[in-house]
Write a structure and sequence with these properties.
The two termini are about 35 Å apart. It is globular and about 55 Å long. About 45% of the residues lie in helices and about 10% in strands. Strands 5-4-3-6 form a four-stranded parallel beta sheet, with helices on both faces. It has helices at about 5-20, 35-40, 55-60, 80-85, 85-95, 110-125, 145-150, 180-190, 200-210, 220-230; strands at about 25-30, 45-50, 100-105, 135-140, 190-195, 240-245. Helix 1 packs parallel to helix 2 (about 35-40), helix 5 crosses helix 6 and helix 9 (about 200-210) packs across helix 10.
Length: about 260
C-alpha cells in the first residue's frame, strides 16, 4: 500500500509487479495523468482521492480491506531513508571523497534530506571524508510551504498548510510526517528553507533543459530557483560546491511544457 508521491508510487507498482505482490496505490485525483497510467500499466490497483497527498494517505490508512497491508508511505517504513542515503555516498564518491558545500533539495516529505544527512554522518564516522557536512537547503512551493514557515518561525514541528496548491505534486505535502527531523537537520547543518513560485519552476524547467540537457520535473526545477535565491541573498559563493537534486523526469508533466 502506498500513498507516497506519484513517482514513488510508480516505483512501488513496478517492484510489486516484479515480485508478484499486489499493490494498492492511492493518488490525488489531480496527479499527472502519466503517473496514473503508469501505475495502472504496472498492474497496480489505483484509487483516486479528491484532495492532496495527505488526503490520499489518510484514505489509504482508513481502507478496512487494507488493514493488514504493508504501508509504504514516507518514513512509515525503515527502508526509504536507507535507500536515499546512497545519494550521499554517490555524491561523495563523485567529488573525490569530498563533501559538497551545499545541497539544494525539493522537499515534500523530506526523506531525501533525512537519508543524505544519515549517509554523510556515516561517511564521517568511517573516516572516508573530512570536513563539515553540507548545508542542507529545503525548497518548497509558495502554495505549500509548511517546512519553510516552521523553520523561519523557530518551530520544531510543522502546522498543516491550509489548502495546498502547486503544480509540483511532489511538493504538495501539507504536513510532512517527519517534519521534526527535517527541521533539525536544516538547523544542524547551517542550512535554510526557501519557497519558490510555480511560475518560477515552470521557467526553470525549460532553462535547465536548454542549458544542461536535463528535462527536470517541476520539483527538480525548483532547486534552480532556490539556488538563485541563495545567490541573491549572499548565502552561497562561487567558491562553494553546490548540488541541485532533480527528483524526476519532466516527461511526467508534459502538459506543463506546452
Amino acid at each position: 500500500m502506498s500513498s507516497e508521491g506519484a513517482i514513488d508510487r510508480s516505483a512501488a507498482a513496478a517492484y510489486a509487479a516484479k515480485g508478484g505482490i499486489e499493490a494498492h496505490l492511492f493518488l490525488p485525483a489531480d496527479a499527472p495523468d502519466a503517473n496514473k497510467r503508469e501505475c495502472v500499466a504496472l498492474g497496480g490497483h489505483v484509487t483516486l482521492v479528491d484532495g492532496h497527498i495527505g488526503d490520499a494517505s489518510r484514505a489509504a490508512r482508513e481502507q478496512p480491506s487494507l488493514a493488514d497491508a504493508f504501508d509504504l508511505s514516507t518514513l512509515r517504513e525503515p527502508y526509504r531513508a536507507e535507500g536515499k542515503k546512497t545519494m550521499a555516498f554517490e555524491l561523495a564518491a563523485d567529488l573525490g571523497w569530498r563533501m559538497p558545500s551545499v545541497i539544494v533539495y525539493p522537499t515534500g516529505g523530506g526523506t531525501g534530506i533525512i537519508g543524505m544527512w544519515k549517509g554523510f554522518q556515516e561517511l564521517l564516522d568511517l573516516g572516508w571524508v573530512e570536513g563539515p557536512p553540507p548545508r542542507m537547503v529545503a525548497v518548497q512551493a509558495v502554495g505549500c510551504q509548511p517546512i519553510v514557515r516552521a523553520f523561519h518561525d523557530g518551530e520544531e514541528t510543522c502546522a498543516e498548510w491550509p489548502e495546498p496548491r502547486t503544480v509540483a505534486q511532489g511538493l504538495q505535502v501539507p504536513q510532512p510526517f517527519a517534519d521534526y527531523l527535517v527541521l533539525r537537520i536544516l538547523r544542524e547543518s547551517g542550512g535554510t528553507a526557501l519557497a519558490v513560485s510555480d511560475d518560477a519552476m515552470l521557467g526553470a524547467m525549460g532553462q535547465m533543459a536548454a542549458s544542461e540537457g536535463i528535462l527536470p520535473c517541476p520539483e527538480g526545477a525548483a532547486t534552480l530557483c532556490g539556488l538563485r535565491e541563495l545567490v541573491s541573498r549572499g548565502l552561497v559563493s562561487s567558491d562553494d560546491t553546490v548540488v541541485l537534486l532533480n527528483t524526476g523526469s519532466g516527461l511526467k508533466y508534459l502538459d506543463l511544457l506546452e
